[in-house]
């Protein structure tokens, strides 16, 4: 069977002569390769939208628009042969688009906005007055399901399935709510990382101007899970109450998720190895041996029709929450267990530094071929990572689509259309509106100020 | 001027604090002597705090440490001069520590820690006055808003183990980014970008402001220093300023202690048991190669002097080694002089003092050199091997390597001391001779205890 060839920039793909029975005319072998990617960048990748986003309104005609803003942003490329190009910068949308189409990077990362065009960085010092240094950068978060490997039994490593993916859903809900309600941010973009996690881009002006210290403080505010394989209890609530943020996360999201979903999908109490892991978190010998006793007896006989995991969780909760006077370490033991399993685990380093590079939305993941599409936090339970369009699927759809001429954009004929439309309506448009206001307001304020200072 | 204001008011009321904000340099006349001495006294305080912080002491311990250090060092025979000493010493140190990024960072951290401790001691009135000085973007929370927030505020307070009392009704709101420490520790209620700060947490607010003001001032000071002051003062203040930040402030071991007098008969055994790694290494290399280059001869030679090796013994010791390589005659001709020089018997007769850790760490050993600080200058592999030879257990080796990675070389040496001797060393090693005398104390107390 001859390999399919895709001509440079040409829409039509040459399909091999001998089609096996029952195979669709337009089908594309499920692969990730440079040729597919070229078509993707040629026809589907939303260059203009990315440009508009990253410009934050500075691509307009208003006198207060900073013409240098976009060109001070760093992009980086990872090319086919693992060659890594940093400090790429562009002066216009077309420069960005042409560069991507020409270089066909396997991965595009977005870095910070620097004080000067990164291409000119060598002319500037590291410290002192005339510096080359980040001045703006979105507040970003990276949540990767491999950080949960010690609490998911269905998969490990790079795999993800519908039993463990909900951990990501829960993370989105907790963090998104807090970013909006606690920190007052509004322009938040959640993106599928392409394989096994999610990224979050907080794009409010205030967020972009946060210092490293302030970013670290937000990341710490979100951090609950501490310790490593040497510590038995990785979550520890020692106060007389939970902080309102944690209490809300628990009551609105985590408690229910643990009880109704995770407990069953991961069968957390079904084997000795698994329940021992939970018993380890209870610093009271008498309680743990009582429970252990019950569960070892019950191994064979199961009187109740209820799921073992549910029953055992009930028993554990009952003992820990019953009226008995509690030792210090037990007061919030139930919450600690729930948090250990379900609370979001962030990669702190990603969030703390302005110069950290993060993969751009709408890239294609080389290992899975899936597009890094946005996720709607309001209905993130419905997001299915195993159903995200792949590069080859999109190309297939495009093939079928050549027969229709009623749509403006190529991507609209494919399942990417939905993602791009969502990106525009729920994120980009409100953001740009707000940026425009911000630019105009600060301009007017400056005008007013200079008027005042000019008075005799 | 502010300082006169403080002095005058202090006579009439206790409400006004004597905590200066160091807004502007005072138009005071300062004696050159005081210029240096005041700065050194303050530097002792700051370095003491720095030691405490890098040893991981808790905030309450730092407070006590700062209190003791301040009391011990910042007094003045004339009560009216105490505030002046405070202000002058601060501004002198600004000159000293404005000159590089690392120096500025250190100075900022220590002065802020010191300020935080002193602010906490002030009365509520004085604290409010200081907050006003800083134009803090805080807004007092109205009673009605407090009522609506009470549950959440109470919950936060309970979560950090400081439940609200009926008296605790004064809260302030600030944009959350103004109080990163409080946000990071989840010690405040955060809502729609505003942090609700309790009165007792206000210290954090003020300290951040203090730090940011000082940070900007340091940059300006640096500019002034490089553009004019350094040149103008090159014969008077500049040499003092440049020497100040590297000055070692502990005992200088120039007078050997009686009990530590050693003879060359015992030296091999003593080297094994009580020399810090830097000196052990030099000593071993000397025994091996029968030679050391200049840097090594200085570092080891002065150390031995500090340890109690008399000049005659020193000459015999070095000669015994060097003559195996270069011959006795050449030793007498080329090397004996510099040993006598170290002991102050030649040339300008300066009795050189043994090098402190700071000095050793900042040295730059080159090819063929063996001096310097192994924790800094050795590769990881070599350092591990050296620690192994000292029979430091693998757990301790990991702790040491961790300190090394974080560039806490003296802490690494302290940990080595603790591992080798099986005791803790609270003071922290900052001089090789200190390591030696501490070690000898342990060794001798062990040999005196009956089995």
Question: What report would you give on this structure?
Answer:
- Chain A is an alpha+beta fold and 456 residues long.
- Chain A has helices at residues 34-44, 47-55, 93-103, 166-182, 205-208, 212-222, 244-265, 272-279, 285-297, 308-321, 333-342, 348-352, 391-401, 416-453; strands at residues 5-6, 13-14, 73-78, 84-88, 107-114, 134-136, 139-144, 188-192, 197-202, 358-359, 374-375.
- In chain A, the strands form three sheets. In chain A, strands 3, 4, 5, 6 and 10 form a five-stranded antiparallel β-sheet that branches. In chain A, strands 7-9-8-11 form a four-stranded antiparallel β-sheet, sandwiched between helices.
- The longest helix of chain A is centred in the last third of the chain and has 38 residues, at 416-453.
- Chain B has 451 residues and is mainly α.
- Chain B has helices at 2-12, 32-54, 59-73, 82-97, 101-121, 124-133, 143-159, 180-184, 202-232, 237-244, 267-274, 277-289, 294-307, 311-326, 328-342, 357-361, 374-377, 380-389, 394-405, 409-421, 432-448; strands spanning 139-140, 171-175, 189-191, 194-198.
- Chain B has a four-stranded antiparallel β-sheet with strand order 1-2-4-3, with helices on one face.
- Chain B starts with a helix and ends with a helix.
- The A-B interface holds A 127, 181-185, 206, 210-211, 213-214, 216-218, 220-221, 238-247 and B 101, 152, 155-156, 158-161, 163, 176-177, 180-181, 183-186, 189-194.
């Amino acid at each position: 069977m001859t390999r399919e060839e895709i001509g440079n920039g040409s829409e039509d793909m040459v399909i091999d002569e001998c089609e096996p029975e029952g195979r669709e005319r337009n089908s594309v072998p499920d692969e990730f390769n440079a040729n597919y990617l070229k078509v993707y960048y040629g026809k589907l990748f939303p260059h203009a939208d990315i440009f508009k986003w990253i410009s934050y309104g500075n691509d307009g005609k208003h006198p207060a628009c900073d013409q240098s803003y976009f060109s001070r942003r760093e992009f980086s490329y990872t090319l086919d042969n693992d060659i890594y190009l940093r400090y790429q910068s562009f002066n216009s949308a077309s420069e960005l688009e042409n560069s991507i189409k020409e270089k066909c990077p396997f991965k595009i990362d977005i870095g910070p906005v620097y004080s000067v065009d990164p291409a000119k960085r060598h002319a500037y010092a590291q410290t002192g007055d005339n510096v080359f240094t980040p001045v703006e950068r979105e507040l970003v978060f990276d949540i990767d399901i491999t950080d949960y490997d010690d609490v998911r039994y269905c998969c490990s490593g790079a795999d993800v399935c519908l039993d463990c993916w909900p951990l990501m859903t829960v993370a989105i809900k907790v963090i998104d709510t807090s970013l909006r309600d606690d920190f007052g941010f509004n322009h938040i973009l959640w993106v599928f990382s392409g394989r096994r996690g999610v990224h979050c881009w907080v794009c409010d002006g205030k967020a972009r101007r946060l210092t490293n210290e302030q970013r670290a403080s937000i990341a710490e505010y979100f951090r609950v899970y501490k310790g490593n394989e040497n510590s038995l209890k990785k979550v520890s609530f020692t106060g007389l109450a939970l902080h309102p943020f944690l209490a809300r996360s628990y009551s609105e999201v985590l408690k229910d998720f643990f009880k109704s979903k995770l407990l069953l999908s991961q069968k957390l109490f079904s084997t000795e190895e698994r329940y021992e892991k939970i018993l380890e978190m209870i610093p009271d010998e008498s309680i743990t041996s009582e429970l252990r006793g019950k569960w070892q007896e019950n191994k064979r006989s199961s009187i109740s029709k209820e799921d073992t995991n549910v029953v055992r969780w009930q028993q554990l909760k009952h003992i820990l929450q019953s009226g008995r006077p509690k030792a210090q370490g037990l007061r919030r033991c139930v919450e600690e267990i729930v948090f250990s399993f379900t609370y979001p685990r962030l990669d702190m380093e990603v969030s703390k530094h302005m110069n950290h590079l993060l993969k751009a939305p709408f890239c294609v993941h080389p290992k899975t071929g899936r597009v890094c599409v946005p996720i709607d936090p309001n209905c993130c339970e419905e997001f299915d990572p195993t159903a995200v369009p792949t590069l080859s699927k999109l190309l297939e759809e495009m093939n079928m689509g050549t027969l229709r001429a009623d749509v403006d954009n190529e991507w609209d004929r494919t399942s990417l259309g939905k993602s791009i439309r969502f990106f525009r309506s729920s994120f980009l448009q409100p953001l740009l509106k707000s940026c425009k206001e911000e630019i105009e307001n600060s301009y007017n304020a400056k005008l007013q100020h200079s008027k005042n200072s000019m008075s005799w | 001027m502010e300082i006169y204001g403080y002095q005058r008011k202090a006579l009439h009321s206790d409400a006004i604090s004597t905590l200066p904000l160091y807004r502007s340099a005072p138009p005071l006349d300062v004696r050159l002597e005081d210029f240096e001495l005041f700065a050194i006294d303050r530097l002792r305080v700051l370095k003491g705090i720095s030691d405490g912080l890098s040893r991981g002491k808790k905030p309450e311990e730092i407070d006590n440490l700062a209190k003791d250090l301040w009391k011990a060092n910042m007094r003045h025979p004339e009560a009216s001069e105490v505030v002046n000493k405070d202000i002058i010493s601060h501004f002198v140190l600004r000159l000293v520590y404005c000159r590089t990024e690392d120096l500025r960072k250190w100075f900022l951290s220590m002065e802020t820690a010191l300020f935080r401790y002193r602010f906490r001691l002030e009365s509520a009135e004085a604290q409010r006055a200081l907050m006003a000085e800083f134009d803090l973007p805080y807004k007092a929370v109205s009673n009605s808003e407090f009522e609506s927030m009470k549950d959440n505020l109470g919950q936060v307070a309970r979560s950090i183990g400081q439940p609200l009392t009926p008296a605790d009704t004064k809260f302030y709101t600030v944009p959350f980014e103004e109080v990163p420490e409080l946000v990071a520790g989840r010690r405040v209620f955060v809502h729609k970008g505003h942090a609700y700060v309790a009165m007792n947490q206000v210290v954090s607010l003020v300290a951040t402001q203090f730090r940011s003001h000082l940070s900007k001032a340091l940059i300006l000071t640096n500019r002034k220093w490089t553009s004019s002051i350094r040149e103008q003062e090159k014969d008077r203040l500049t040499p003092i300023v440049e020497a100040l930040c590297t000055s070692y402030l502990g005992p200088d071991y120039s007078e050997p202690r009686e009990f530590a007098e050693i003879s060359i008969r015992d030296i091999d055994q003593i080297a094994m048991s009580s020399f810090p790694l830097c000196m052990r290494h030099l000593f071993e290399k000397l025994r091996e190669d029968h030679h050391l280059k200049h840097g090594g001869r200085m570092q080891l030679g002065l150390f031995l002097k500090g340890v109690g090796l008399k000049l005659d013994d020193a000459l015999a010791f070095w000669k015994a080694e060097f003559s195996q390589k270069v011959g006795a005659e050449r030793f007498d001709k080329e090397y004996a002089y510099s040993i006598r020089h170290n002991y102050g018997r030649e040339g300008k007769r300066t009795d050189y003092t043994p090098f402190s850790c700071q000095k050793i760490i900042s040295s730059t050993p080159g090819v063929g050199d063996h001096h310097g600080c192994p924790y800094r200058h050795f590769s990881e592999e070599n350092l591990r091997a050296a620690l192994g030879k000292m029979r430091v257990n693998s757990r301790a080796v990991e702790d040491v390597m961790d300190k090394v990675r974080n560039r806490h070389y003296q802490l690494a040496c302290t940990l080595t001391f603790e591992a080798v001797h099986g005791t803790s060393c609270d003071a922290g090693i900052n001089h090789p001779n200190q390591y030696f005398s501490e070690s000898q104390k342990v060794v001798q107390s062990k040999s005196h205890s009956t089995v």
